[in-house]
Amino acid sequence: MVAPARTPLRTDRLRAVNAPKPVALEWDASGVLSVSKVGKIEAILETWRIDDEWWRQPIARAYMEVMLEGGKRLVLFQDLITGEWFSQMP
Amino acid sequence: MTSFRDIFGSHFDSEMSQRPTSVLAACVWIPLFPLRCEEARHEGLAGYPIALLAPDTTRKLWQVSPLARHAGVKPGMTVSQAIGLCPTLRLIEPDPVHYDEQFSKLLSALTEVSPVVEPAELGSAYVGTDGLEGIFGSPGKIIEAIKRMLESWNVGMSEAGSTVQHSNFPTFRLGFALGKFTAWVAASRAKRSEAIVVPIGEEQKFLASQPIAVLPLDPDIHRRLRQLGIRTLGALAALPEEAIAAQFGSVGRRLWLLAAGRITEPVVGRVSPEPIVAALAFFTPVGERELLSHSLDQLIARALRHPRRIGWRVHALRLRADLDGSGSWLATILLKDPSADAARIAAPLKIRLEQSPPTGAVERLVLEFTAFAPGTSELQLFARDAQAAARAGQQRALQSAAREIRMRIKRSSLYHIIEVQPWSRLPERRYALIDYEP
Lengths: 90, 438
Hints:
The structure holds 2 protein chains of 2 kinds. By secondary structure, chain A is mainly beta. Chain A has strands at residues 8-10, 15-16, 21-23, 25-27, 33-35, 39-52, 59-68, 73-79, 85-88. Chain B contains 14 helices and 18 strands. In chain B, the strands form 6 sheets. Chain B has a 5-stranded mixed β-sheet with strand order 8-9-4-10-11. Chain B has a 4-stranded antiparallel β-sheet with strand order 13-16-14-15. Chain B has a 3-stranded mixed β-sheet with strand order 6-5-7. In chain B, strand 1 and strand 2 form a beta hairpin. Chain A binds chain B through residues 1-11, 13-20, 50, 52, 59, 75, 88-89, and chain B through 38, 41-42, 45, 50, 55-57, 83, 87-98, 382, 391, 394-395, 398-399, 415-417, 420, 425-438.
């Protein structure tokens, strides 16, 4: 590895990679589900659920990996505590 | 040729007899040397809990400051573990080349006191003091002379561009005794910026009360000795030598001899190599600067490959040109920072070639490395060979690219990806970006 140099790296400058972005899901008139400002959902590829960290700040999420119109894949999840929807890269 | 390694890992061979040695030793020890180098060049850093990342790909912690240690952070931890324990922890990317350079300067400063200086590891060196009493006087005066040199080395760090207050510079500990081991133990027991002098003849008494952790032990032997209830060197030395040898083999016998003060390892200095000369004769005299510059690169590469250069950095060099006819041209360069990097060696010579070129066509070009600065075992890894030169080249290229990006978009947009919790089921917790400023 190239020894990178030496500027102190402050932990308050840590940036999360793949942070969840809030999104809105909506049904159009024809009954097709779409992600607001992103695109229509063609198919739901997989679903799973995570319940974690009940001992401090509980996390409960319902995930689904979807294929959008045009073939792009996206991970969506609903925060089951607040009801909000988020997107993430697969 | 016979060769062996002593307990400290120093390599001995038949050439040892040609090297200057000294049984009276002063051990200079700067604990957490790399971390102290960082504190010395970054203002305010010493007030925070800090940790250096390992200079490999594991991205684990290498060295940890006392403040961070107080919060439970330990070397070998992952970044996520450390941040979990100490959210205000500041992480620092390692800069091994800088640490090597500072250590080389430290060794150079120590050679002002004694010609017999032996580097042990980064931040630790032995100074042979046989005969120095004739110059400085008592061991206390010799210690004072070494302290003055360490102060001048600290000031040198300041002049190298640091804006940090003098009080933040690395603090040393000194030990003075007969033989390297006792000197090291004395240094390890000394307080900050102070020295412990073990009078000659009192080595056994001094060693007897020291903990066994001062021995060069592997963890397994350390554990077994503790299980046997042996806590001090005196307790170890009180056992029969043969019993220890039967339990722990030849390693155990050596440990017993050390604990009993029966081994007096001398400080073995290094002999500066003879000048290294590389020459190139042209079939037809050459006047083009580009060709001369190219020839210079070849000569430097050839001289750097010379076996005598291994383990040394070039400090002074001379380029001589025999000109068509009877004239000659000479450039003498003293490198501010000794280097084994071809580009850094070539740069001042090329500037000289540009600014005051030879007055005629060159028939023969001769390059001489005339003075050298010692390296350390760490230099073998980081800064003294072709691999290190390549590393330094990549580093400079990265710095240059980062500078250009900053100039164009007015902010840093380079990041390192580090593993934070790679096992996490939550994707955003697995990796993080930290600013990268080469």
